[in-house]
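Assemble and predict.
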Amino acid sequence: MINRKVNNYIFLPVLFLIMFLQITFIPQAFSDLIVPNLILILLIAVSVSSESTDIFYVSFFCAFLLDIFSDLYFGPIIISVLIAVFISSYLAHYFLKKLFSLNLVLISFLGITAYNILYFVLINLDNFQQVYDLTELNRLAVIIIFEIIYTAIFIYPFAYGVGISIFDFKNKNENQVLYK
Amino acid sequence: MKKEISSKIVAFVFLLVISALIIFLNSLGYLNGVKNGALYAAVPTQGIFQTSLADINDFFQTIESIGKFKKENATLKNENLKLTYEISKCKETKRENEILKRQLDFSEDLCLKGACFQWEMGRIIGRDPNNYGKYIIINLGTKNGVKENQAVVISGGVLIGKVVEVFSNSSKVMLITSSDSLINSIAQTTRANGIVKGKYATGAKLEMINQNEELISDDLVITSGLESRIPKGLLIGKISNIKESANKVFKFADLNLFADFNQIEEIFIVKNYD
């Protein structure tokens, strides 16, 4: 059983910092590219590293704040993030025996892809014709490809960061060792 | 093991129910206070973040663009935009004058750049964290007299979007590149009426143009003034790629937008136009 406690004193400021970056600097810095969803990659990194249910509440809180700064319709980010984190967490429970493995990347890819597809469908619920519009689908495909590339780049550093700074390693030996 | 996964499922389902409840409460308007409070708390910090990070970003961009005459290019672009706007303004004024002379009706006086409209300057303090480029958050709200559907422009009279949600000290602006954005517009030379619709942050197109109306490449597209709170004559873009087919009811065209949405920092809101 993994019972690492989240060190809120480190985790929450880091989370807030990345969230602020996500709504200010990152969209501007990646002005001509697809914007990486760093907050979701971090949440997925935490969710696959821990069996704690705390990550769902943290994800809910983050998504709630992001939704305020995002779409006019409230809720698409909350639902998409929750489902993406749940999928990652669920898959990690069964298929992730060693943290730094190919499975970590594959599970993260699935989480990110699920998020993007869900978000796309949810924001187009009022005008479903757009979902079948090839231009929009092409855009979605490009976003997913870029997000997968970003995930491949960031998931290992984030998972490593989660491992060394966010979780309490005092109980490491009692737990299922992911960090080999 | 099973206990852990079932507790995850319970937490997940519980939060989904809470989410559904929140969405429902938001649709009834009960969450406005919470959203307003969150934005109120975030605006000062975000403003500092946005400004300082924009400076850092600008610093790196300047380093990147050494040898590319970035500044010169930007100045020339700006000058070109101003001249384009001046030409557009002159054309509009000329046309308006002709109409006014004929009708002796001076009520529809077109005057921009603060001559007749009241402008309120603001800053972008937040951007859409997603990739669909729909919204920005600005630091003007009901305290500054901002109302829904007011036009948001940048220097040179270039329309970038309209206000869709107003809070006490901030507002949400839907960009014209958003696929939900529809702006009633006209082509300046041919006077073809159409709707400018966004294309998921990748640009915009001019739609719903009757087959019997003419479109010319590089013709300016401006706001028609048919929408409340969006004055006539604001620049949107240039027609770039006309697409027509005899078996379709309408024709449409891609637009080269004047605004560089990623570089905008200061915006203006047109306040006294109803």
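Residues 135 and 174 of chain B are 5 Å apart (CA to CA).
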